[in-house]
Amino acid sequence: MEKEEHYFNGEIGQNIPSSNAKREEDLLETMYLWWKGGRTLTVPKLCVSLDLSRRELNHLVKKMVSHGYLQATEKDEELKLTAFGKAQGAECQARHQYLTQFLQMACGLEEEEAQENACRMEHVVSKEVIQGICEFLKYGDTHDRVIHNLDLCTIYEEGSYEFCMSIYRTEQRYPRILADEFYAFDDCILLEVGARDSWVYLKEKADGFSQILWYRTKGGWARAKKAAEGFRIPTDLFAFTVSSAVLITEGDGMVAFTDADTMPGEEDCRELNIHIW
Questions:
Q1: Cα–Cα distances in Å, from 151 out to 60, 113, 155, 198, 275?
Q2: Which residue, 6, 167, 178, 201, is the most exposed by fewest CB within 10 angstroms?
Q3: For residue 74, which phi and psi values (nearest 5 degrees)?
Q4: What is the rounded end-to-end Cα distance, in angstroms, of the chain?
Q5: Whole-angstrom distance, CA of residue 79 vs CA of residue 65
Q6: Euclidean distance between CA atoms 74 and 12, whole angstroms
Q7: Residue 7, pLDDT score
Q8: Domains of the chain
Q9: Which long-range contacts (CB under 8 A, 24 or more apart) does 121-126 make?
Q10: CB 168 within 8 A of CB 273
């Protein structure tokens, strides 16, 4: 019994089996360019141009008819793209062009090499990737990026820096609400950058702060040690936001406050945010 194939409507490449997607998209792009240029779409001409046997091409054509890209025709009749096929062919061409331009701009490739790489990439990237590349090529728009385990020693020279900080409740994000613990500390945080390590220090406003401060690492919770500068927290705790305009804009990490020397629970967790410039 022949295995049943399932197809789904959606962006190109998602409604056909992945094993056939590349060949079918390549053929669709070629047929679209021929139609756009006023050339006749016939099986013999396409076989010669694409170096395909008649049997291979007829198999692809039959699939493309079932996917809605081509109109059903009799044997040896001129092939005709449907409105859907033309739209998807135009998208294939746009993907190829955007990727080619991007590879030339970002990687310094010659056009021929960029074309070859674009041919391999255009079948696997998502619609969101192509949209992002398009916006970058048109307007230079980029998105902020989040980096974990960033070594601040590679960005700042050794020394001390002051930045603003906030401590937020974790149960609500939009809008964020300051946690009660925020008011127990100075709103300026001290960053100490050394040759190998970097730390931030939270300094309480007055003596008598009785709670234990914890910070979360990959291995779990660690108790923050108290120094003269305040509670010491390693900077690799934070996920740093990086933008194209400013190297680092902020860092986010998870801390907790407990009254006893016991591991924090969910209700003890707070978000520590440092604002960097």
A1: 52, 35, 8, 8, 17
A2: 6
A3: -80, 170
A4: 66
A5: 10
A6: 26
A7: 36
A8: 18-139 (1.10.10.10), 148-275 (2.60.40.1850)
A9: 122/25, 122/92, 122/95, 122/96, 123/13, 123/21, 123/22, 123/25, 125/95, 125/99, 126/11
A10: yes
Residue type, 142: T
Inter-CA distances, 141 with 134, 146, 163, Å: 9, 17, 28
Residue 172's closest CA among 47, 269, 62? Answer: 269
Strand 188-193 to 250-258 pairing: unpaired
Query: Hey, is 212 helix, strand or coil?
Result: strand
Residues ≥6 apart with Cβ < 8 Å to 241: 144, 145, 146, 248, 249, 250, 251, 252
pLDDT per residue as tens, the chain (277 positions): 333 333 334 555 444 444 567 888 889 999 999 999 999 999 999 999 888 899 999 999 999 999 999 999 887 789 999 999 999 999 899 899 999 999 998 898 899 999 999 988 888 888 888 888 888 888 776 677 788 887 787 778 899 999 999 999 998 877 889 999 999 999 999 999 988 889 999 999 877 788 999 999 888 999 999 999 999 999 988 998 877 666 667 899 999 999 988 999 999 999 999 987 6
